[in-house]
């Protein structure tokens, strides 16, 4: 996803979209909110349709924005865990509202397990 220019980011909605826009960032944060802490492989397992390249890229972008915390353990084999930061957790009420809206406006015949 192309980033917005500095001039365009004077709008709060555009700024928010520049930080958390795209198909995967909300889903990554949702899975982290559900589970607290997940390793890279666990995230890949709960998001099977995301490619390794995309997951890695999205996690890096979320880390740069300080929405996701990456903890690396100095051991063999390497171990890395991801969790939401305090700033990331401020988006949880928005996720709850998105979930509520989706439940209320989902087309008939599509059950929650179909997504």
From TrEMBL:
Gene3D superfamilies with a match to the protein in the record: Winged helix-like DNA-binding domain superfamily/Winged helix DNA-binding domain
Domain HTH hxlR-type: 11-110
InterPro entries per the UniProt record, alphabetical: HTH_HxlR (IPR002577), WH-like_DNA-bd_sf (IPR036388), WH_DNA-bd_sf (IPR036390)
The keyword Cytoplasm appears for this protein: no
UniProt GO MF annotations: DNA binding
Keywords: DNA-binding, Transcription, Transcription regulation
PANTHER family the record matches: TRANSCRIPTIONAL REGULATOR (PTHR33204:SF29), TRANSCRIPTIONAL REGULATOR, MARR FAMILY (PTHR33204)
Listed name of the protein: Transcriptional regulator, HxlR family
Organism field: Dendrosporobacter quercicolus
Taxonomic placement: Bacteria, Bacillati, Bacillota, Negativicutes, Selenomonadales
């Amino acid at each position: 996803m192309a980033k917005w220019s500095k001039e365009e980011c004077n709008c709060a909605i555009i700024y928010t979209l520049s930080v958390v826009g795209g198909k995967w960032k909300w889903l990554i944060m949702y899975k982290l909110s559900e589970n607290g802490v997940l390793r890279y492989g666990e995230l890949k397992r709960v998001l099977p349709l995301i490619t390794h390249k995309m997951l890695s890229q999205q996690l890096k972008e979320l880390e740069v924005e300080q929405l996701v915390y990456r903890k690396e353990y100095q051991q063999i084999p390497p171990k890395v865990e991801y969790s939401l930061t305090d700033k990331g957790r401020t988006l949880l009420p928005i996720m709850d509202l998105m979930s509520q809206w989706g439940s209320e406006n989902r087309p008939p015949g599509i059950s929650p397990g179909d997504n």
